[in-house]
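User: Modeling request: complex.
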Amino acid sequence: MLAACGVRSAEELFSQIPAEAVLDRPLNLAPGISEYEIVDYFRSLSDKTAAGYACFLGAGVYNHYRPVLVDTVVSRGEFLTSYTPYQSEISQGTLVTIFEFQTMLCQLTGMDVANASMYDASTAAPEAAMMAVRVTGRSKILVAKSVHPEYRAVQRTYAKNQGLPIEEFGYDAESGEIDMADLESKIDKQTACVMIQSPNFFGVIENVRKAAEVAHAHGALLVFIFAEAASLGILEPPRDADIVAGELQSFAISPSYGGPYAGVIAAKEKFVRQLPGRLVGQTTDSAGNRAFCLTLATREQHIRREKATSNICTNQALIALMATVFMEIYGKRGLRELATQNLSKAHYLGSKLKRRFTGNYFNEFVAVTNGISAGEINRQLLSKKIVGGLPLARHYPELGDAVLLCATEMNKRADMDKVAEAFGV
Amino acid sequence: MNYPESYRYTKEHEWVSLDGDTATVGITFHAQKELGDIVYVDLPKTGTDVEKGKSFGSVESVKAVSDIYAPVSGEVVEVNEELSNTPEKLNEDPHGAAWLIKVKVDGPGDFNNLLSVSDYQKYVGAES
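Assistant: Request completed. Predicted assembly structure:
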């Protein structure tokens, strides 16, 4: 094999790897140890260090229950190995699931049309902003500082390379909601869209209607971002928005150290020509039967080339299918129950701590520390097998030693009491 | 098909009529016939500038998307908004009601350099 690669030794084959990253000794294994024994060793180690932890970390990735049926469905060969459903005749199964995904997302968001999914919310958000730029013919993007910091970072990368100016507007120091006066002062005739997230990064629920009124009064669109899809089970759908972009990780997609997830963009029907990504439509076949096919594909790269609405041609079909199966298992009532449980648990925890903001919240909120540092609180909690919240100073230095905490249906009261204890309450 | 004598034409199958300093631009009968059923028209906004030879919009039929190139340079003073709801008009009356944009031009220079009706018909005949 070395000869076929044109190298003389294994060392030469791996010479690209920096020296400091190379292990310069054999693995620390007893001689003759079997694969089974090695696996067993690591399993017992993980039981000690990784299993059985309670988690109060949210901040864009949420700890929700994954029904076993989800993996049963997505691991079926028909879904697991299927190619993009270009050919309707042999792809009705995949097309039906995507159509159901789009339909349920429309119902949850109050939009008229939803695409077949995006990679995640961080890439869906800038795509939504660029869609607003195409619709309005304007270039400025106004983003709330309370939108997820990582979504904003991706947004900056997109905007920089598209030559689109971005401006951020602040949040109200007391309520944690967007600062309407700051928004009013920064919006102008060049503003293509106002982007807000609700619940926002601090967990605070925004007044979507009011934000939409301000945006529309200046001829701009309102782009609504959601990071916690479970909130849609109980909050009013963002009907006043023009474009909705969001993250579906909460719907049975495993946290998996940050991905892959699935996102989505939904919009009012009049903007459908500018919607990026794949879209499945319902039609009738030559025999008059209900059938499904990819539709409005002229927006897409394989037909429109450099004038396509986006480079995204494919979609996260398999991961999005997890969300589809999840939504179908829970249904309307189940999602509401799930959301209610999240609300109750988070509000139990919230009532025991000192909250930084007065705004309404769903399953996440900012807690202020009480003489103990955020890092020390998290170290204490970790020793009790509890993963604490996100210290906010990294993203919002002005908030000092505040911590973003999340409680979901997965959290037990006893653990929440331990968190309150660690905060010194 | 009757191609109006007073119009001028391009090899990209646009037509132009000139009234004072206002040029009306559309696509030809031949263009719509080649495209087939037109389902969407993407046009610029009033107030934008178009440049001769550069794309200013696109027409989408059931089988393709095609750029429309400006036959003259100038500022767009009017856009045929009706086409956004009734793009099929481009198939029905391409030389009349389904004009695309009106452009304020700086003199008749661009216009005079375009193809005459007989040259265009010869060109289309040669192309097909």
